[in-house]
Amino acid sequence: MGVLMSRRQTVERVQKVSLAVSAFKDGLREQPSTRRRAEAGTARQGTLEQEVQEGEEEASAGPSQPEESSASKAAWERLRDGRGVEPEEFDRANRFTPPAFIRPKRELHDDEPPDISLEQREQILNDEMCEICEVWTAESLFPCRICPRVYHDGCLRRMGYLQKDSTVEVTETAHTETGWSCYYCDNLNLLLTEEEMYSLMETLKNCKIIPESCLTLDDFLHYKHQVHKQQFERTMPEAQEEQAALQFNALDPDKKGHIEWQDFLSHESIQLLQKIRPQNALLRLLTPKERERARTAFLALDQDNDGFIGEGECRQARHTWFRKHQKEMLSCNVSISHVGPISEGSPASSRNSKSPEKILPATKQEETRSIDWPGFLRENVAYILAARPNSAALHLQPLA
């Protein structure tokens, strides 16, 4: 045990030293630029005519092409590294250095079916110390609803992950039934391997998608048409176009007329995971909190305790348990160890009358087809993963 602890301490010490070195390097990068400006100011002591001529040439030239390509390159690098949107004007003075995200790697056994028992419940435990500062301060720690990590709001703010109204969102939702996803779990793009990420980047580049930009409905449909034509070498059917339009509306819950870049990226990431990885590999991405929440949902629907539910009930869970919920449904008087949102179809709200418009009608075929626990997980795993981000957008619209 002593050897294991010493190794962990060594790793943590190396990580902290790396953060300090990176911050020192950032300071060194700024110093040469200051010296260059001073040297340039001394060298430009020429005639008034030369200064005027240089100013006219700079004004007529306008923004140079290398600067634009440099900004575009930086955006693609942020996309590749999973860092999200980082505006150039964002002031990182007196802030912690964000960690370097390491993309996952596929393992040989990933495609084999995982052993997720329905009867054996899992104990949900959160970490005791803040993920960032590694300090324990009890009630002031905010837990992630997906993983066991906990955070201080002040540490998140110094990391640059809380801006504007984000602090209020974390403090109001972290201890509620809906919960809050940390910056690891909020970004579905971090589930992609390097190979999968490069594949997505190639698709975006071929379709002329500008990273970190918003997409209108026309932009979204045009992109979907291009992707379909590249993949199948034929025009996208009208039914799929209608489904794409419904997906756009789901990604734009506030009806702003466009979807944010992060929501579009999360949607494309989960779509790519569905296409490339088998369902068994997706099941291995579920955390204990998500698996426990799925158990609760299945057992609530299995009224006769025979281990099977109808297809209509499975579809109902997809439209209630595994989708976003409005903030007015939140309740602050709950335990922080709860594993996920409570909807109108959940056991905790079974005492209340169910809203008829929330329950989707089941066809006769759906009523006759039975689904067991492994089938329930396989059919809903993508929707469980898609519900991770804090955004109100539905990153994977369930089929009607």
From TrEMBL:
Ranges annotated as biased composition (Polar residues): 62-72
Metal-binding keyword on record: yes
Biased composition (Basic and acidic residues): 26-39, 75-94
Residue ranges of domain EF-hand in the record: 289-324
InterPro entries listed in its UniProt record: EF-hand-dom_pair (IPR011992), EF_hand_dom (IPR002048), KIAA1045_Zf_RING (IPR031946), Zinc_finger_PHD-type_CS (IPR019786), Znf_FYVE_PHD (IPR011011), Znf_RING/FYVE/PHD (IPR013083)
GO molecular function: calcium ion binding; transcription corepressor activity; zinc ion binding
Alphabetized Pfam families for the sequence: zf-RING_15
Ranges where the record places region Disordered: 24-94, 341-366
SUPFAM superfamilies: EF-hand, FYVE/PHD zinc finger
Keywords from the UniProt entry: Metal-binding, Zinc, Zinc-finger
One annotated Gene Ontology cellular component of this protein: nucleus
Name of the protein in its database record: PHF24 protein
Lineage: Eukaryota, Metazoa, Chordata, Craniata, Vertebrata
Protein's gene: Phf24
